[in-house]
Amino acid sequence: MKNNHRIVDHPVLGSLPEKDSITFTFDGKEYSGLAGDTIASALLANGVRTLRVHEASGKPRGIYCNIGHCFECRVTVNSTSGVRACLTEIKDGMVIESGKPEAQPFASKNVQDFPRTYAEFEKKQKVKGDK
């Protein structure tokens, strides 16, 4: 697939400078990007919008903040899961897979035991310290 979604002549920033082409795979398909692209920008340039599915709902997820704050763009890179596509530069031959569902960080059967306010948290900490 070609980079037909890439902006090559921006009205304010001007023309995109010449860069080396890089080949990588995403979910078994070969794509090309440019040196300096992040995974997210290279995939967007190739028309790919879905990077993973939500752990609980199974709904598609893509790029949300594009600055590394939200973790919505997690993918698996060369067998390492949880890599943020918006912060990771593509490398030639990189193997990228859609983000696999990770464990939910606060999934617990005893949610009622969690403090709901900071005051409750402090109170529990004091009780622990008294033991």
UniProtKB/TrEMBL annotation:
Key word Oxidoreductase present: yes
Signal sequence coordinates: none
UniProt KW keywords: Oxidoreductase
Keyword ATP-binding: no
GO molecular function: iron-sulfur cluster binding; oxidoreductase activity
Record-annotated membrane-spanning stretches: none
Coiled coil: none
Matches recorded under InterPro entries: 2Fe-2S-bd_N, 2Fe-2S_ferredoxin-like_sf, 2Fe-2S_ferredoxin-type
Name of the protein in question: (2Fe-2S)-binding protein
Species this protein is from: Cerasibacillus terrae
Taxonomic lineage from the root: Bacteria, Bacillati, Bacillota, Bacilli, Bacillales
